[in-house]
């Protein structure tokens, strides 16, 4: 029997997201993005931000999910990412994310 239940809206963070001009350039090249602001590494495509949350997501699992529950899990779930951007993200900004349970 699990020792603890998960609760919706349990939250951990912030986790710093490692984004920089070189990563942006590599991502733009790998995704064949022809937007020059992404190609030269100045602005960050929103899809790149989504790819960087997995490290934070896994770190949050070890904090939010008791080991006996995690070790008994036998399925896969894709995380949900809500990105609300009020302006373009510059590659030299420090980005932080929070991880929250939702069900």
Helical region count? 5
Distance between the termini: 19 Å
Report the strand count: 4
User: Rg to the nearest angstrom?
Assistant: 16 Å
Describe this structure in words.
- The structure is a single chain.
- This protein has 103 residues and is an alpha+beta fold.
- Helix content is 36%, strand content 17%.
- It has helices at residues 21-30, 36-39, 46-51, 54-64, 67-72, and strands at residues 11-17, 43-44, 89-90, 95-100.
- The strands form two sheets. It has a two-stranded antiparallel sheet. It has a two-stranded antiparallel ribbon with strand order 2-3.
- The longest helix is centred in the middle third of the chain and has 11 residues, at 54-64.
- It is elongated.
Features:
two-stranded antiparallel ribbon; 5 helices; elongated; 103 residues; alpha+beta; two-stranded antiparallel sheet; single chain
Q: Which SSEs are present, and which pair or pack?
A:
Blueprint: E1 11-17, H1 21-30, H2 36-39, E2 43-44, H3 46-51, H4 54-64, H5 67-72, E3 89-90, E4 95-100
What would a concise description of this structure say?
By secondary structure, the protein is α+β, with helices and mostly antiparallel strands. The protein is built from five helices and four strands.
